[in-house]
Design goal:
elongated; 395 residues; alpha+beta
Length: 395
């Protein structure tokens, strides 16, 4: 489990919204609606759990004609409300992955009847009938949010941009747990207050800078865990308009309309990444990002899995990409570019370089270089919201 802040309470001390424990639940729901809701919540549930209740999804049918779904892994929690015909309000918990697999295989357009009573839940759709074991809803753990004093809204498209342009640089090294997420912080820059999102694994850095949303002033610095980022990104594809963001120093909540995602934050200090962003790199290379990306991709075909090293030899308006592999041979390709500084050679990890180039949307990418050992700055231009730093490697 990741190192996150906060506590989770068990056995009814913190409860899902509702009144008491109801032994019976009856609801009918359209198969596509149930499947869509379950597809969102079941992915939070870990496949292997030592605590049986964590394999389950909490289902609560309300008198208002809603079926509320909730799943958690103790660090991340998702709630979703979907429309249902409720004959008997009540609640239960059942295996999330099993229910999702059943719903996925039911006939399209079918009406699904859910009936929970006395430790079992029956699922009926057409001629198909299932009976699953349940666990008491009072045993279901809920993340206690506490106060979330910082609240603001951000367009869903902007949030997608933040995630897409940074998450590839999130570290997967568990010992450096404080790098296992996206760092969000506000800053008073010279021209206007900003919200910045950054991720790094020590080899590359990605940062996006945006105008500070209204309500984000005084926001604490937070690190949003990698799993929360992944689940949030999936949900954003179905959101129009804005997303409500509420946070404290230990928790963050994203309100996406029908779905609400709540996560503990990583309890650690993100490094002062601004120190590795070069400001004096005076060798400027300008290229077409697509031809550069394709050239790197082609020559790296023979690169060894271990190093993935590609060498760039820079000469006036000509860049030669090359790879030498003791096992596979050699590859080289010339790529046109705008370069007027002194010739020199530098090496990069081709996969890291391709990850960055894949995020460049414009027609030109600027590569700011210093020497073969210094960090390299990559961006579209000085007005672009995203910038990237890539450490070179010996080739």
């Amino acid at each position: 489990m990741s190192r996150t802040r906060g506590t989770t309470r068990f056995r009814g001390k913190t409860r899902f919204r509702g009144t008491g424990v109801l032994k019976i639940m009856k609801a009918t729901i359209e198969r596509a609606t149930l499947l869509k809701g379950l597809s969102h919540v079941q992915s939070v549930v870990e496949r292997r759990n030592t605590i049986p209740i964590l394999s389950n999804v909490l289902l609560e049918a309300t008198a208002e004609g809603q079926l509320r779904l909730m799943a958690t892994d103790l660090d991340l929690q998702i709630n979703e409300s979907i429309v249902a015909a409720v004959d008997q309000p009540g609640s239960t918990t059942v295996s999330a992955h099993t229910l999702f697999d059943i719903a996925r295989k039911l006939p399209e357009g079918s009406q699904v009847q859910l009936h929970a009573a006395e430790g079992r839940m029956s699922i009926v759709a057409g001629r198909a009938r299932f009976s699953l074991g349940t666990l008491p809803r009072d045993d279901f753990p809920v993340i206690a949010e506490g106060e979330l004093p910082t609240q603001f809204e951000i367009p869903a498209e902007t949030l997608k941009q933040i995630i897409d342009k940074t998450r590839f640089a999130i570290s997967t090294e568990e010992t450096r747990y404080y790098l296992n997420g996206i760092f969000l912080h506000v800053q008073d820059d010279a021209s206007e207050p900003t919200l910045k999102a950054a991720a790094t694994d020590g080899h590359r850095l990605a940062r996006v800078t945006l105008p500070r949303p209204e309500g984000a002033a005084g926001m604490p610095d937070v690190i949003v865990p990698r799993k929360c980022v992944a689940e949030l990104r999936k949900l954003l594809d179905e959101v129009d308009g804005s997303v409500g963001v509420s946070l404290s120093g230990t928790k963050i909540r994203f309100d996406l309309g029908q779905a609400v995602l709540t996560s503990k934050l990583i309890d650690g200090t993100f490094p002062d990444y601004s120190r590795v962003i070069p400001t004096g790199n005076d060798k400027i290379l300008k290229l077409d990002p697509r031809s550069f990306e394709e050239g790197v991709d082609r020559v790296s075909t023979i690169a060894t899995e271990k190093t993935r090293a590609v060498k760039m030899a820079l000469d006036r308006d000509k860049i030669t990409l090359s790879v030498t592999s003791p096992e596979n041979g050699t590859a080289a390709e010339e790529v046109p570019g705008d370069y007027a500084a002194m010739p020199f050679e530098i090496g990069f990890n081709s996969r890291y370089l391709l990850d960055i180039l894949g995020q460049i949307d414009g027609d030109v990418v600027e590569v700011h270089l210093n020497d073969a050992a210094a960090p390299t700055l990559i961006r579209e231009n000085d007005k672009a919201p995203a910038l990237y730093v890539l450490m070179p490697m010996r080739v």
